[in-house]
Amino acid sequence: MVPRYVKAIALLCLLGSVLQPQSTRALPISPWQQVNLTIRGKVKDINGNPLPGVTVLVKDTKRGATTDEKGNFSINDVKKESVLVFQFIGYDPVEQVVDGKPLSIVLKESQKTLDEYVVVGYGTQKKVTKTGAVSMVKGSELQQSPNVNISNSLVGRIPGIIAVNQSGEPGYDGSRIFIRGRSTLGNSNPLVVIDGFPRDGFERMNPNDIESVSILKDAAAAIYGSRAANGVILVTTKRGKGGKPSVSYGYNQSFVTPTRLPKMADAPTYAQIVNEILTYGGDAPRYTDEQIKKFGDGSDPWLYPNTNWYDATIKKVSLQNRHDLSLSGGTEKMSYYVSLGSLFQDGIYKNSATNYKQQNVRANLDAVVNEYIRLRFDLAGRLEDRNFPPRSAGSIFRALMRGRPTENAIWPTGEPGPDIEYGDNPVVTGTNAIGYTSDKNYVVNGTFVAVVNIPWVQGLFVDGSFAYDQNFQFGKTFVKPWTLYTLDPNSTNHALIPGSRGVSAPELTENFNTGRSSTVNLKLNYTRTFGKHYVSAFAAFEQNSLRGDNFGAYRRFFVSDKLDQLSAGGDKQKDNNGSAFEYARRNYFGRISYNYKETYLFDFNGRYDGTQNFPEGRRMGFFPGASAGWVLSNENFWKENIHAMSYFKIRGSWGQMGNDNVPPFQYLTTYGFAGGGVMFGSDLNKSIYQIRTPNPYITWEVANNYNIGLETKLFKDKLSIEGEYFYSKRSNILIPRNAAIPDFTGLTLPDENIGIVSNKGFEMVLSHKNDIKKFHYEIIGTVTRAKNKILYWAESPNVPAWQQYTGGQIEAPLYYKAVGIYHTQDEVDKSVHLSGARPGDVIFADINNDKKIDDLDRIRVDKTQYPTMIYGLTMTAKYANFDFTMLWQAATGASQYIRTESGLIGNFPEAIVKDRWTAQNPNGSWPRAYDRDREYWVNRQNTFWYWNTNYARLKTLDFGYNVPGALCKRIGIQNFRVYFTGQNLLTIDNVKIFDPEAPQGSGQYYPQTKIYNVGLNVTF
Questions:
Q1: Hey, what's the signal peptide range on this chain (predicted)?
Q2: At what angle do helices 289-297 and 267-280 cross, to 10 degrees?
């Protein structure tokens, strides 16, 4: 039951001695009272729905009534000019002076009451009594972002979230999320729980269906046991509310562009660079000054083009749109929320084969069978339809980066030009001309819950739930030859020669995967208030099983590229394969919460967890969590002496959690089929080989998490501060001892629970809100810092201290330290350098001072591709019918190794060569032109290419206008809002060439996106 309705029922019980059994029954009238008034009226919400059960009191008396099921009330014998007070749990109270006329009262939902509760594991808690580090964001805030992927909307809004978005490719554009950073050498992904059950698909949820998202960051997560060490994300979907049916429709149209594409060197510049590279290698220049001039003046686009491969391949603007329709409402016995949604996301290529389409449906139903039994039934379905060309995004952008501006992407007559290599002309490979890849994923999630109140024990109830999830995934890749054109060198009239590229004959690969998960949960709950004492507890049992199957088939030698069915393929070289998997878990868990006067707070939860990933006898483990808090502001000494600070709470927690997200069956000797086989007669029989050496003592990682927090409100709640300090020590991390075993032994050891990592940091949230007449504003600032340190890594004893993993961050890289660029030969001669070093090369530091540069001069750089600090600044304002929200987000502490694959093999970003070292520019800020990996400072990873990726973004901008209620009522609707939103509209950083969240590598990736969006929401 929703907490505010529980309060409403309790309030009605308290008023039972005052009010008549029938809410509208009038009080007896004495003859001398006949001059007073009989007041009648109706109470509705802002959408016009009647509100039953509203308390109507004559101010400063105990006389009153409650509204009936239609929202009507009547009170006799009321003096003229008396004041009626209308009160209902979850709504702001209203006072109204009576004058004898019928009253029409509208109550607005109280934002303070709505924000009073926070979702935690297997339940809810009042914020004032929570003792754990739990942060929550409302679904309405997530809807302000035009992102179609929910994971991209969390960072900056919720403290404790560290996220990196490394691609904007439709269907694969999600952020990698860490809760309070990384604490393990293995899998660091948080557990996602949707409506009470661990489920996949969070990224693809419809934001309009989400009521709230909570993040469990400390002992509060221990209730999820061996899966909680990386934190827990709890998602709660919307449910129906009482009242007449309400239909809402939303539509938005987005215009999408890349946040940043590299500006590549033009043809004259590249031709000059090619000459320089050849000269450095002792070869003759390729281009004359006259030819270089022709590349620039456009006089001969056939032989001397100046090609911008990005312009030839990438659209200026791509489209994205979403439709959403929902129906909600209900009666005293039944409430419902039903929604339909559809979205389309196009790729950024011209004639793009890349796009993502999704259809989703949800039905959440709640039924009250009687005063003892309540039922809940949820059903959600989703179709994820991903479409791509057979060439990957990395392959396409590799060709774009390498595209030489001195060659034609498209001939002046419109035919596609020659390939870079292997048929890779991105003008063609980004389209369906080379075939297609289709990936359809059908997902169904079903949940049934029954809650039974035990009538003979107050506060005791049982709830049982069953969840069943099923998905079907069908993938199909059809590759066919494509045609590119080269210029006939013997022709005088620019004749083109067509040539077949790619595969020699069409090829088809199909695969089918299915997975099904079922979970049974049974809980015994007890909630009771004894005077000033509040007790809540539950004990539960849960069991989950997961099964899956997959099948694949391949054929080639199709008679035509118009027939893309397996049956049309040839029988030679055809292949098929299949496999299956099965997992199971069993858990016993519970929690007890106690508080006295909402001042002294205590929580304890524990889980006895089991998983099949570990051997018998080591499968079960106990994971406890304890937390306590003290609301000092409730004490008399505080109330009497500290008036500016209306609320102050301190809290602390300790929790022990696990991480069993490791490859399964490591305790068994496992075998696999070898690629070849053994001949028996004329038949080839498959042979098997041992895959791993078993470890019969394997178990889960163990995380001990400590947290200290404080919460305070000042200046009549206009300023709020919440701060956390946390420390986590993760032990039993699975790593092999191979690093400590000499290579000459030839031994490959199994993983062991020997790794240890610590992680510590802090979070801070400052919020200020105020009203200046009709103008309301709110400012919220968040900051999160989390940095890990490897405390134990099985390292070889002869590794020098400056190269050891131990003491550094997870994945901290090993690089030569670059300390500048040689400007002159004299600088080269006077330094310790590698053989062949020359002016324009990058200088490596002699770390160990042994007068030579070798592998011992590499250092462990204590930075990774993941930031250690995340900042968020949200500013909202409302005035009259206008509303405005702006979210700034920043990240610091990360670096990315990005070095382009350039040289004779392909083009350079303009920024790298614009101020390069040359004999004429000896003080250039970039080294001399290089050819791929030929130079030592290119083929040996060094800090020169380790880019500082600190950035600040205008992450979200939302500006809306609500049509006045009187006008809406006139045209028969409840409300109508139009809005403009934007995503990643502005980025401030020092990278400039690529997006600061670019993945490590050569810049060959599908870029992040900038979104401009217009939309409307209408409710009937």
A1: 1-26
A2: 160
Low-confidence spans in the chain with pLDDT less than 50: 1-34
- Residue 911 phi/psi, 5° resolution? -60, -30
CB atoms < 10 A from the CB of 49, how many?
17
Three-state DSSP string of 288-302: CHHHHHHHHHCCCCC
The residue with tokens 């043809």 is 267
Structure tokens at 968: 């809406």
Q: Helix, strand or coil for residue 221? A: helix
- Please give the Cα distance from 158 to 179 (Å, whole number): 10
The 8-class DSSP code of residue 202 comes to G
pLDDT score, position 682 = 66
Cα–Cα distance measured from residue 550 to residue 581, given in angstroms and rounded to the nearest whole number: 9
Phi, psi torsion values for 82, nearest 5 degrees: -70, 165
Distance CA(729)–CA(852), nearest Å, equals: 40
Supply the DSSP string of 941-966, one letter for each residue. Answer: -BGGGEEE--EEEEEEEEEEEEPPHH
Question: Does the reported pTM lie above 0.90?
Answer: no
Asked whether the beta carbons of 605 and 705 are under 8 A apart, the reply is no
Helix/strand/coil for 837 = coil
Q: Where are the beta strands (DSSP E) in 454-506?
A: 460-479, 482-487, 496-501
- Pairing mode, if any, of strands 232-237 and 191-194? parallel
Query: Of 308, 304, 340, 338, nearest to 323 (Cα)?
Result: 340
d(CA 1009, CA 238): 29
Q: List, in order, residues 6 or more apart from 608 with CB less than 8 Å away.
A: 225, 587, 588, 589, 620, 621, 622, 623
Q: Which of 599, 595, 594 is nearest to 632 (CA)?
A: 599
> Rounded CA gap, 6 and 39, in Å?
28
Question: Using CA atoms, how far apart are residues 981 and 336, in angstroms rounded to an integer?
Answer: 30
Q: What is the DSSP letter of 422?
A: T
SS3 911: helix
Note the pLDDT tens digit of each residue in 213-254: 999 999 999 999 989 999 999 999 999 887 788 999 999 999
**Token code pair at residue 358:** 């999704």
The DSSP code for 204 is G
Following CA atoms 151, 156, 162, 168 in sequence, which dihedral angle do they give, to the nearest 10 degrees?
Answer: 40
| Interacting residues of 555 by C-beta distance below 8 A, sequence separation 6+ | 507, 508, 566, 569, 570, 573, 574
pLDDT digits (tens, 9 = 90+) for 484-541: 999 998 888 899 999 999 999 999 999 999 999 999 999 999 998 888 999 999 999 9
Return the CATH class of domain 37-106: mainly beta
Element (H, E) at 977: strand 975-989
Closest listed residue to residue 277, CA positions, set 910, 1001, 917: 917
Q: How is the chain split into domains, by residue range?
A: 37-106
Answer yes or no: are the C-beta atoms of 362 and 237 closer than 8 Å.
yes
Q: Convert 403-418 into a string of H (helix), E (strand) and C (coil).
A: CCCCCCCECCCCCECC
User: What is the C-alpha separation between 97 and 537, in angstroms, rounded?
Assistant: 45
The Cα angle at residue 627 between residues 622 and 632, in degrees rounded to 5: 175
**Cα–Cα distance list, 678 to 287, 573, 691, 942 (Å):** 58, 19, 18, 47
Six token digits for residue 102: 């019928």
Among the listed residues 218, 13, 239, the one whose alpha carbon sits nearest the alpha carbon of residue 759: 218
Tokens in use for 12?
A: 């009605």
**Triad 257, 263, 264: Cα angle to 5°:** 135
Structure tokens given for 56:
């109507």
DSSP, collapsed to helix, strand or coil, labels residue 364 as strand
Cβ pair 871, 782 in contact under 8 A: yes
Query: Residue 703 is which amino acid?
Result: A
